[in-house]
Amino acid sequence: ARSRAPSFPPRTPAMARGQQKIQSQQKAAEKKAKIAKSQGADQKKSAQAALKMQCSVCKVQLGDAKTYKQHFESKHSKLPLPDELKDA
Which of 44, 48, 81, 87 is deepest in the core (most CB within 10 A)? Predict the structure, then answer.
């Protein structure tokens, strides 16, 4: 007859490892949320700061005079060009 491998104790330690895994996942999720929250605010602030001009017709925000002029010529071509765009 063949000898069998030694019997091991019941798998109760696996349950403890499962608990560690859950705790680790929760901790990682909290850390990820914290990082995303801190970076999200910075991105919003920097994006808002980059938008320096606002279209006088449709109120869309634009970064610079060149982009504003291109926007105005394509979207509002029938209207006269605003004074702030004549030199751009």
Answer: 81
